[in-house]
Amino acid sequence: MQVLRDIIYQMLPRPRPSGAPVADGERIARRLLILSRHPNPSFSYYLAERAKTLGHIPVTMKGLDEPLDAIDSDGLFVIICRYIKPPQLRWLEERRGTLAGVAYFVDDDIPAVVTGNEASWPYKLRLIKLAVRPMPRVNRLLTHVWTSTETLASALAIRTHRIEILPPLPADAADVPVNGRDDGAEPLRMVYHATGVHRHEHEFLMPIVRAAMQKHSNLHFEVFAAGPLARRWARQGIDPARMSIIPPLSWPAYLAKTTHHQADIALAPLLPGRTNASRSDTKRIDISRLQAAAVFSRCPTFERCAVNGEFHIGNTADEWLAAIDLLVGDRERRLSARDATRHSIETMRRHASPAFPGIRFEPLSGIG
Fold this sequence. Notes:
Layout: H1 2-11, E1 27-29, E2 31-36, H2 41-52, E3 59-62, E4 76-81, H3 86-94, E5 99-106, H4 110-115, H5 121-132, H6 135-139, E6 144-147, H7 150-156, E7 164-165, E8 188-192, H8 199-215, E9 219-224, H9 227-234, E10 243-246, H10 251-260, E11 265-268, H11 274-277, H12 283-290, E12 293-297, H13 300-303, E13 311-313, H14 317-329, H15 331-350, E14 359-361
Parallel strand pairs: 1-14, 2-3, 2-4, 4-5, 5-6, 6-7, 8-9, 8-11, 9-10, 11-12, 12-13
């Protein structure tokens, strides 16, 4: 079965820039259009802060079902964020001669997700419909391809086509006030926030969380899960009064929840695998917003912006239980780890240019 998965993985289309080159290697754009399944985390993590830096450049954001007829395509640079539907794709094809360029941005190894064994079939079918099937037509328009990590760029690269890196650019952590959640009050709130795509991580954590909850009566655990995963969490023998199993939320609802309902400890396991190898460390942003002390898997993804005071451990039950024990029992270490992840967001910002790679924007005449 794995051999068949590997064959299909190699056969699925990848993004590659096939648009006509520009003599000076740089395109001048006077407007920006972002096509996205809006709102979504990819836009928030990678594009939102960069769009804010463009000053007088008009920026338009459109959801996948919104019409584009009223948009002036002259000097327009278009960013396709992961997905596109046929009406918008036809609009771009009809106006390709007036566009300043088209970039495709992706932050997941979508062929790996489609051919892997973690994601649900409804999610895979959505990826095929919105990201895989349109790709050959999208490629005829592309002048740029951007990915979130070097590893993802290597996984998606075809021949000599250039893929540029657009790392996450979070909002300035200094703009987020530190609240008083960890003031010694109990119970302590421990969370694991991940989608069903991380089924292996859910399964890895189940016995660890069960043991931690048995040992520490002052812990309350919250996990996002639905369907079979939710049922498996419910069968772990954890007191239902001390565990919340929450169905996955929409992105706006998740932002609101994690902004106003902080946690004490956040678990961030990442197990080896083709899909995970290409992931970026945006989980730091969520944990910083939660203002929680994090436990990270020791891996290249989370090492990228690691700072002193964080917990980076091997993927063994003993190491994870020891880390949870320490954070539960030592408030000062908990606060130190919380502050370390907050500082790691500053490191993440330093590692990321606010510019869109290879694009020069000039304001429309008469503006500014």
